[in-house]
Every structure is written in structure tokens, then in C-alpha cells.
């Protein structure tokens, strides 16, 4: 689901994301598993979706296996376990997830830098306890077409007839809801204000 609203000043307010789910079980899933280092040589993020969990999704002969990302193609809500995104601080991991189609993540916990990188991409990463996350992963397996809704403002996740309370980092929630997570877009959209401020500074010389 796309952000709920966009402001005229470059803001994209993300208050809710929804879609089908994909369970990615396992604790301490690090960024080298999410995006293998051999693909770091590319100078853009354009092809990162093709490399998401590249090794884990393939057998020794290179053929796709039964990895959840192969079985739940088209899902947009990832459900993960403890310390997801640990290891290297590479931004490529959440970039690959976003470009594959992930709009939100429900998990037990995240590596801090991975979570912050998700915030910078507008991907809500909310947390719940082990039992709650496991039940959601099992529900997805039984209901592959079932919708999961992450309400960032209310701090809830809804699936089937179940509504659960979740936690979300305060800085992430504020940035998403207020539409200030994409700092680059905000700077570009406010270029005229920047220029006006620069023009008013007595110690900055103009081109002429």
C-alpha cells in the first residue's frame, strides 16, 4: 500500500501499510544473508531486488528452492524474528527488501542501524513478542492470501479477526506519520526556501 497522503512540500505521510505477508523465520538473520556482499560492487540499488536472500533462495545447482520469498511472491509485509538485520550496516539490505516489494516489517527485534535504514526508506518496522510473531508467521502459512495491516499511528497490526498491539521506535513513528522520513525529498522540495535564506545572508556572495 502506498503512503496514505502526500503534502505539497515533499512530505509523504505513512500512517498505515497493508498487504499479504511473508514469514522469514530465524534469529540473527544478518545483512550478508539478506544481501550477499558479492553484490555490493554495483554502484546503484536498481537491481537489489534480484539479489534479496540470493543464496538462501537457491539450491546448490542455482535453482529456486522453497524459501518463503519464493513461495510468497507478491507479499509486502515481512514477519521476522529476533535481531533481524544484524551484522554489517549496509543500506543495501533494506533497499533490496523495499525493491522486492516489502512495505512494512513485523518482528521481535531489529539491529539498530537496520531499523534506522528502514525509517529512511519509509518502511515501518514494528515489534511484538516471540509468541505473537510466531502466531502471525503460522497464520501466514495457513492464509497466504490473507491481508495484514500495520497501523503506524495506532501501533496495531491486524490480520484475520486478530488485532495485536505492537511497539514502534518513537523517532520512526514520528518521522513516518509527520512525513519527514525522506530527508532528501524534503530538501529538494524546499530548495526555494534554502535559496531565499542564502540570498539573505550578508556573508554569501552571489554569482555576479
UniProtKB/TrEMBL annotation:
Keywords per UniProt: Amino-acid biosynthesis, Branched-chain amino acid biosynthesis, Leucine biosynthesis, Lyase
Q: What is its EC number?
A: 4.2.1.33
Q: In which pathway does it act?
A: Amino-acid biosynthesis; L-leucine biosynthesis; L-leucine from 3-methyl-2-oxobutanoate: step 2/4
Instruction: Describe the reaction catalysed, as an equation.
Output: (2R,3S)-3-isopropylmalate = (2S)-2-isopropylmalate
GO molecular function annotation: 3-isopropylmalate dehydratase activity
Per its UniProt record, what NCBIfam families does this chain match? leuD, PRK01641.1
Q: Report quaternary structure and partners.
A: Heterodimer of LeuC and LeuD.
**Entries under PANTHER family matching the protein:** 3-ISOPROPYLMALATE DEHYDRATASE SMALL SUBUNIT, 3-ISOPROPYLMALATE DEHYDRATASE SMALL SUBUNIT 2-RELATED-RELATED
> According to its UniProt record, which protein family does this protein belong to?
Belongs to the LeuD family. LeuD type 1 subfamily. Belongs to the LeuD family. LeuD type 2 subfamily.
Q: What is this protein called?
A: 3-isopropylmalate dehydratase
* Originating organism: Halorubrum rutilum
**UniProt gene name:** leuD
Amino acid at each position: 500500500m502506498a503512503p496514505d497522503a502526500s503534502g505539497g512540500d515533499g512530505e509523504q505521510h505513512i500512517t498505515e501499510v497493508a498487504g499479504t505477508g511473508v514469514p522469514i523465520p530465524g534469529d540473527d538473520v544478518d545483512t550478508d544473508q539478506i544481501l550477499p556482499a558479492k553484490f555490493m560492487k554495483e554502484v546503484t540499488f536498481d537491481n537489489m531486488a534480484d539479489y534479496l536472500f540470493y543464496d538462501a533462495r537457491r539450491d546448490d545447482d542455482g535453482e529456486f528452492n522453497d524459501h518463503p520469498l519464493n513461495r510468497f511472491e507478491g507479499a509486502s509485509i515481512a514477519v521476522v524474528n529476533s535481531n533481524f538485520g544484524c551484522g554489517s550496516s549496509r543500506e543495501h539490505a533494506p533497499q533490496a527488501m523495499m525493491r522486492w516489494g516489502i512495505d512494512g516489517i513485523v518482528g521481535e527485534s531489529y539491529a539498530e542501524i537496520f531499523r534506522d535504514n528502514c525509517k529512511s526508506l519509509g518502511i515501518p518496522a514494528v515489534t511484538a513478542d516471540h509468541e505473537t510473531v510466531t502466531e502471525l508467521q503460522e497464520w501466514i502459512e495457513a492464509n497466504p492470501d490473507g491481508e495484514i495491516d500495520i497501523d503506524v499511528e495506532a501501533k496495531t497490526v491486524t490480520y484475520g479477526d486478530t488485532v495485536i498491539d505492537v511497539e514502534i521506535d518513537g523517532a520512526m513513528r514520528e518521522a513516518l506519520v509527520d512525513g519527514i522520513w525522506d530527508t532528501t525529498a524534503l530538501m529538494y522540495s524546499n530548495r526555494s526556501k534554502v535559496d531565499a535564506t542564502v540570498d539573505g545572508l550578508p556573508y554569501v556572495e552571489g554569482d555576479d
